[in-house]
């Protein structure tokens, strides 16, 4: 099994459990392409995202918010007119995405712990 296949297996295992939580949107995979799952990123309600991050961190589970600020809000891009269109989808996603651990050597036990903690958080907060 190559690294892409290993990550895809980890992602599929996450997907099976996280699809049971209506407040979570799992990564969407196109049927005509493959995803190497460099990151496993969930979309959650923005009002719960930071609480989820704090909760899993207290349980010893790392998570990341890779893109907390939309590019069009960065000072470095203030002189560039990106577009005049509505960028609310970008803003919503930057406020509501969180990435969970994923790597090729991930055990089912480690994943089960992550899944359990995320599930607990949503049971207590929805």
SSE diagram, text form:
Elements: H1 3-18, E1 40-43, H2 46-58, H3 88-96, E2 97-100, H4 108-125
Antiparallel strand pairs: 1-2
Helix pairs in contact: 1-4, 2-3, 2-4
* Class derived from helix and strand content: mainly alpha
Q: So how many helices? A: 4
SSE pattern, N- to C-terminal: HEHHEH
Annotated CATH architecture: Alpha-Beta Complex
Shape: globular
Q: Total number of β-strand segments? A: 2
Report the span from N to C terminus: 38 Å
Residue runs with pLDDT of under 50 for 5 or more positions? none
In spatial order, strands of the major sheet run 1-2
Main pleated-sheet profile: 2 strands, antiparallel
Helix residue percentage? 40-55%
The CATH homologous superfamily is named: Aspartate Aminotransferase, domain 1
The whole-angstrom Rg is: 16 Å
CATH topology value: Aspartate Aminotransferase, domain 1
CATH class: Alpha Beta
Integer average pLDDT:
92
> What is the domain total for the residues?
1
